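stage 2 :: seqdesign
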């Protein structure tokens, strides 16, 4: 898939084949693509937490405003940023990174969706994320299951 096709055909995926796991090779390819993302001062202020525990995903889903589908995904990846290493551009770095995650996933036949609004303090506690770090999003990762509800149908 060329880059223009990937950009144009990517959609937010909110319905996943719950029991079809993501191959480790594909997960690593997505994360490696993310590691190639540009960042302010080349600070690379990101860390990834791969979440495979179904119960954890379910508990996180309950703390989101519009991310209930996290309860029904084979895995999630939390994007964690360090505001101290990126000269206050960490949110920009994280935004670019998240789109690269989405495009890389899509190019491999996988889907994801930015989950924005959540009780960050609670989710940070669940994932043992230190106080000084920023939890940007928890991204579902899995194989799309048919037609996904599009915003705002999913509300
Ligand atoms: C910062 C940000 C936060 C978002 N938060 C959510 C969310 O919490 N739940 C959700 O279902 N979609 C969320 N989205 C996805 C948007 O709804 C989606 O990108 C938009 O409707 C366009 O649809 P598309 O991605 O399929 O092209 C978010 C997107 C962005 C960029």
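stage 2 :: out
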């Amino acid at each position: 898939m060329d880059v223009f096709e990937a950009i144009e055909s990517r959609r937010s995926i909110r319905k996943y084949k719950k029991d079809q796991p993501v191959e480790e090779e594909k997960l690593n390819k997505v994360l490696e693509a993310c590691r190639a993302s540009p960042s302010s001062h080349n600070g690379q202020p990101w860390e990834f937490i791969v979440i495979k525990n179904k119960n954890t995903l379910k508990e996180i889903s309950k703390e989101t405003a519009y991310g209930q589908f996290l309860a029904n995904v084979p895995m999630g990846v939390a994007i964690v940023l360090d505001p101290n290493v990126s000269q206050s551009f960490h949110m920009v770095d994280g935004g670019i990174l998240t789109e690269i995650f989405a495009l890389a996933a899509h190019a491999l036949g996988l889907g994801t969706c930015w989950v924005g609004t959540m009780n960050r303090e609670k989710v940070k506690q669940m994932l043992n994320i230190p106080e000084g770090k920023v939890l940007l999003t928890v991204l579902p990762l899995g194989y799309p299951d048919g037609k996904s509800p599009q915003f705002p149908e999913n509300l």
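stage 3 :: structure notes
- The helical segments are 3-9, 24-35, 54-62, 90-107, 120-126.
- The first strand starts at residue 46 and ends at 51.
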